[in-house]
Recover the amino acids of this structure.
């Protein structure tokens, strides 16, 4: 496994899988979710609406993953996952987001996957907590895959770099 930590906009990253930090409704929002929907185009919202009618009638539960096509993104799939909200949910569910995405990526034969720092924006989870969880998970993950961790803020990339250098 190859781990890359980069600063940038996740919608510009080339990878088989782009992970979206979604919300339960699957119908879009701000942050990463807004950027991914805007870059992918309207087909994505249509597919999400269909998923809500068929598979996730009461919304996507925190920690689980829903797969859609990638539309105009340079990817094969978008994985939508909902992180825990600080002060409301059990933060250990953040681990489920990453583990379930990685398992699904293996299942689909993906060779690369790009993650944002799920829950560290609107959902207020500290970036250092996120970095430690992600590092723990990736330490135990053996499949031959390129994992790209995309941080939007330079300060957040520095925190990830520091935690991964320990
Ligand atoms: N590329 C990579 N990372 C980004 C980008 C980008 N273009 N834009 C922001 N970030 P957030 P959450 C960083 O709020 O905390 C949405 O409204 C950002 O700096 O996108 O899981 C959804 O619809 C932060 O570090 O996701 C949900 O309602 C990280 O991505 C809710 O927000 C996550 O920030 C989900 O909140």
């Amino acid at each position: 496994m190859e781990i890359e930590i980069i600063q940038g906009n996740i919608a510009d990253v080339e990878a088989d899988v782009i992970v979206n930090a979604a919300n339960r409704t699957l119908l879009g929002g701000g942050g990463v979710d807004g950027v991914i929907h805007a870059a992918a185009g309207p087909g994505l919202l249509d597919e999400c609406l269909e998923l809500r009618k068929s598979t996730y009638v009461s919304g996507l539960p925190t920690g689980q993953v829903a797969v859609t096509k990638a539309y105009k993104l340079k990817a094969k799939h978008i994985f939508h996952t909902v992180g825990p909200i600080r002060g409301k949910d059990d933060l250990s569910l953040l681990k489920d987001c990453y583990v379930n995405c990685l398992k699904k990526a293996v299942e689909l034969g993906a060779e690369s996957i790009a993650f944002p720092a799920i829950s560290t924006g609107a959902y207020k989870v500290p970036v250092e907590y996120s970095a430690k969880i992600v590092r723990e998970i990736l330490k135990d993950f053996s499949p031959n895959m390129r994992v790209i961790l995309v941080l939007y803020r330079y300060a957040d990339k520095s925190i990830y770099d520091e935690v991964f250098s320990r």
